[in-house]
Amino acid sequence: MSGFNHPEWTKDKNIYEVNLRQYTEEGSINAFMAHLPRLKAMGVDILWLMPIHPVGVKNRKGTLGSQYASQDYLAIDASLGTEADLTQLVETAHDMGMYVILDWVANHTAWDNVWVEQHPEWYQRNDDGELFPYTYVDPRKTEYWTDVIGLDYQNKELWQGMTDAMAYWVKIFDIDGFRCDVAGLVPTAFWEFATEQLHQIKHLFMLAEWSSPELHNKAFDMTYDWGFYELMGAIVKKEKTAEDIAPYLDALFTEYPADAYRMVFTTNHDKNTWEASDEEYFGDAFKAFSVLAATLYGMPLIYSGQEAYLDKRLAFFEKDNIDWKRLELETFYSELLTLKRENQALWNGPYGAMPLLLQTGNPNVVAFSREKESNCVEVIINLSEQVQEYQINNIAKKGKLSPFEYVITVK
Question: What is one Pfam family matched by this protein (predicted)?
Answer without folding.
Answer: Alpha-amylase
